[in-house]
Write a structure and sequence with these properties.
single chain; about 325 residues; alpha/beta; TIM Barrel; 10-stranded parallel sheet; 10 strands; about 40% helix; about 15% strand; globular; binds S-adenosylmethionine; binds 6-(5-methyl-2-OXO-imidazolidin-4-yl)-hexanoic acid; binds iron/sulfur cluster
Length: about 325
């Protein structure tokens, strides 16, 4: 049985990624069974707490000010609105609640004070509370940790070599620096990427290599298929093939066996059978609810039906963390 490694080479990860698909799924499923309960899938809910008006130029994003996407801009939600949404999510079976803000970085202002209050409330509800707020300093990460933040999402999105084709307003090192600040604060790290941005297989392999060779693997690795947004430079990208999702998920599972691998954006376009392949390949989490951050998602009752058909059960909170 493979052990946990942090010294993967690009070539090794490339070989895994390109393995004939049935062999790849078989190997990933074997590792999945050794490290995770293959019948459990964690259900998470996303909430956009501050929408649109973001100064960054991420080519895939509906929330950048640089593109005319028609997204409805909204200032930071109130504590009461967030509390209500979190309670609804919990009632519908979510054990993790992730709050996203369209910020380039966190600033030490009133809005951040309010986010701190939101974190406290959701943490007290017994859900894993996650935030994705852009870049963070070490002291901001510390404040979030003290408020009870369980996880922080900050994606690398793609390989380091392709990054500047997708985003020009920050660089790969900025991302890695925030991830390091999150790690140092003791918050669980959620970091993954998107496929379907026009990248090559090598760019995907490069991103997985960066993740799998971090001194500690992220506890959570979201794999998103691009949701092509009208008005963005990537509006006309072609739909991601399920086989590409399977290869990404399986390679993440094999190289980072302890991580929760999340089948994230793009599920609305996938059949139950296609999603089943992703679970087989090692995915063990989904985002539920009719909305991701700004785009539609599979309806909750459809997901409940899928869980029944595939005989999956929702995973309880706080099981993924090696942090205790
Ligand atoms: N502004 C913060 C940031 O960029 O870190 C947090 C919010 S941002 C929307 C969170 C992540 O969602 C991005 O890093 C990206 O991986 C994913 N994402 C955003 N738009 C997407 C899209 N259209 N399709 C797929 N994934 C997307
Ligand atoms: C992640 O990797 N995917 C989620 C979550 N982390 C924050 C976001 C997906 C956003 C999809 C596009 C939208 O709804 O705006
Ligand atoms: Fe802003 Fe995040 Fe969207 Fe980039 S992905 S434009 S940083 S909200």
């Amino acid at each position: 049985m493979d052990t946990i490694r942090h010294n993967w080479t690009l070539q090794e990860i490339g070989e895994i990624y390109h393995t004939p698909i049935f062999d790849l799924i078989y190997r990933a499923a074997t590792i999945h069974r050794a490290f995770q309960d293959p019948h459990e899938v964690q259900v998470c809910t996303l909430l956009s707490i501050k929408t649109g008006g973001c100064p960054e130029d991420c080519a895939y994003c509906s929330q950048s000010v640089k593109y005319n996407t028609g997204v409805e801009v909204h200032k930071l939600l109130s504590l009461q609105e967030v509390t209500q949404k979190a309670a609804e999510a919990q009632a519908k079976g979510s054990t993790r609640f992730c709050m996203g803000a369209a910020w380039r970085e966190v600033r030490d202002n009133k809005d951040f004070d309010q986010v701190i209050e939101m974190v406290k409330v959701v943490a007290n509800m017994g859900m894993e509370v996650c935030c994705t707020l852009g870049m963070l300093t070490a002291s901001q990460a510390q404040r979030l940790k003290e408020a009870g933040l369980y996880a922080y999402n900050h994606n690398l999105d793609t390989g380091g070599e392709y990054y500047s084709e997708i985003i020009s307003t920050r660089n790969y090192q900025d991302r890695l620096d925030t991830l390091e600040n999150v790690r140092q604060s003791g918050i669980s790290v959620c970091c993954g990427g998107i496929i379907g941005l026009g990248e090559t297989d090598n760019d995907r392999i490069s991103m997985l290599h960066t993740l799998a060779t971090l001194p500690e693997h992220p506890e959570s690795v979201p794999v998103n298929a691009l949701v092509a947004i009208k008005g963005t430079p990537l509006a006309h990208q072609k739909r991601v093939e399920v086989w590409d999702m399977v290869r990404m998920i399986a390679t993440a599972r094999i190289t980072m066996p302890h991580a929760m691998v999340r089948l994230s954006a793009g599920r609305l376009e996938m059949s139950v059978a296609e999603q089943a392949l992703c679970f087989m390949a090692g995915a063990n989490s989904i985002f539920a609810g009719d909305k991701l951050l700004t785009t539609p998602n599979t309806a909750v009752d459809q997901d409940q039906e899928m869980f029944q058909v595939l005989q999956l059960k929702p995973r309880a909170a706080y099981q993924a963390s090696p942090l205790g």
